[in-house]
Design brief:
It contains no helices and nine strands. With 122 residues, it is mainly β.
Length: 122
């Protein structure tokens, strides 16, 4: 198994509190612009709790920095169907308009950076 597996997840924090705090390994996780959270799957723990009076959420406290997924240094993006069949190269994380609706796998690669793979729905 790899030592680190980053996952983008949607968490229904409303069931806990309108301003619920998501934490992993004692550090708060800042939600992404779409409301999802990037978590470390290999940490094997995640807390969603009601906020305390002294909770201040900012990027410096985040477990994973917001650029972990969308690193501008990635130069090669390849799209696959869910069976792993390579469909071609694309520019970024957006599925081209010419592709039919559905789920796709995008793999981003660049020089010395580890490859990043995510499932994208169109």
């Amino acid at each position: 198994m790899p030592k680190s597996v980053l996952l983008r997840v949607k968490i229904n924090t409303q069931s806990v509190d309108e301003n619920a705090v998501v934490e992993q390994a004692g550090k708060k996780i800042v939600p992404e612009s779409d409301g999802s959270y990037i978590i470390e799957f290999m940490a094997k723990e995640l807390k969603v709790r009601k906020p305390n009076a002294d909770d201040v959420l900012d990027d410096s406290q985040s477990t994973l920095h917001k650029t972990t997924f969308a690193n501008p240094a990635y130069t090669k993006y390849t799209v696959f169907d869910l069976n792993g069949v390579r469909l071609g190269g694309i520019k970024g994380w957006i599925i081209p308009a010419s592709y039919p609706k559905g789920s796709y796998i995008i793999r981003a690669e660049a020089g010395d950076l580890p490859a990043v793979t995510r499932i994208v729905n169109k």
